[in-house]
Amino acid sequence: MTTSEEILQIDGSIYEGGGQILRNAIAFSCLLRRPVRVWNIRAGRSNAGLRSQHMTGIKLISAMSNGRLEGATIGSTEITFYPSTVNAGRYEADTQTAGSVCLLMQAAVPCMVFGNGSIELRLLGGTNAEMAPQIDYQLLVFKPIAAKFGLYFDCDIERRGYYPKGGGEVYVRSEPVKYLKPVTLTDVGHVTSIYGRSFVSGQLPPKVARLMADTAKATLKQKMNNIPIKMDVVKEPNPNTASGIILVAETTTGCLLAGSGLGKRGRSAEDVGYQAASSLLDNIFHGGCVDDYLQDQLIILMALAKGKSSIRCGPLTLHTETAIHVAKQLTQAKFDVVNLSQTQTIIECEGIGLENAVM
């Protein structure tokens, strides 16, 4: 029986005080096979405590690792998780809302590759949701950068899901790895191309997607007139009304930087396109090798890797500061943040070199 002294402890009210602390803590607990207690869950939010999406995520990790959860009820502000081995197999997680499947993936994917065999996840919920990366971002940006660490996964979108109904269906598959490799991303190079996807669904006409794309292009051309821009304009075969856009810039050194936006009632298509383009330009001109949305997602990979990783980025986001704090609390990874200027930072990490015992 595990004693209380052996249980890792995390205060869920620190830094950004949201669901990210819980996701990362549960993932590290699963990977290290050490129990964790998280309290003050989402204390920084107006509706503190566990919500349906967070419950879905931690129950998925618990199922994958044949674990045991205590206190996992809607509204709970404290949980304790006792993990075991991550087992091969098929698992399903349903947010039953438009809760983001991408946030489920953030916690689950690192755990999957340290399992004892092939794993497939069927994730149900929102694929393009507010306050979370769009599924397109995870495929176009996170997936290829994660591959540099030796973390590989396949992801198929069976059906997209939008606010407020959700209904998206995504399949994620992985094979086990021995360990993750350290990564150095400190030379951003020069932007060679920009590509993206502008979509509408439901009752919105295709011209709305075209307006978003055209506005984004025009905004980008003001600053990057010589860079080729390719946009896919899509009318999704989905009855739920939604719209959105994602833009990705690729550089000579293989860096990927993005900007995105989602439509909502009362917001013009031009405004959505302009926001996405402006976000991308901000990420390009701060001179980092990763954008503001990737920073925090790489912290767990850096902490697990065998060796020293160095990543140049813009100013640290609060989510990144939170992720570093949780990683330092729960692992022996050594982080150092070097401020090069007001707009550029290098994150260095000597990872713990976690190895998969079954490989």
Automatic annotation (TrEMBL):
Which controlled-vocabulary keywords does the entry list? ATP-binding, Ligase, Nucleotide-binding
Show the catalytic activity.
a 3'-end 3'-phospho-ribonucleotide-RNA + ATP = a 3'-end 2',3'-cyclophospho-ribonucleotide-RNA + AMP + diphosphate
Stretches assigned to the RNA 3'-terminal phosphate cyclase insert domain: 186-284
Q: Where does ATP bind?
A: Q106, Y293, L294, Q295, D296, Q297
**Does the keyword Iron-sulfur belong to this entry?**
no
EC class: ligase
GO BP field: RNA processing
**Which GO cellular component terms are attached?**
nucleus
Keyword Transmembrane listed: no
Which terms in the Gene Ontology molecular function aspect does this entry carry? ATP binding; RNA-3'-phosphate cyclase activity
Output the superkingdom of the source species.
Answer: Eukaryota
The EC number of this protein is 6.5.1.4
Q: Spell out the catalytic residues.
A: H319
Quote the function comment for this protein. Catalyzes the conversion of 3'-phosphate to a 2',3'-cyclic phosphodiester at the end of RNA. The mechanism of action of the enzyme occurs in 3 steps: (A) adenylation of the enzyme by ATP; (B) transfer of adenylate to an RNA-N3'P to produce RNA-N3'PP5'A; (C) and attack of the adjacent 2'-hydroxyl on the 3'-phosphorus in the diester linkage to produce the cyclic end product. Likely functions in some aspects of cellular RNA processing. Function plays an important role in regulating axon regeneration by inhibiting central nervous system (CNS) axon regeneration following optic nerve injury.
Q: Which family does it belong to?
A: Belongs to the RNA 3'-terminal cyclase family. Type 1 subfamily.
What's this protein's name? RNA 3'-terminal phosphate cyclase
Native organism? Octopus bimaculoides (California two-spotted octopus)
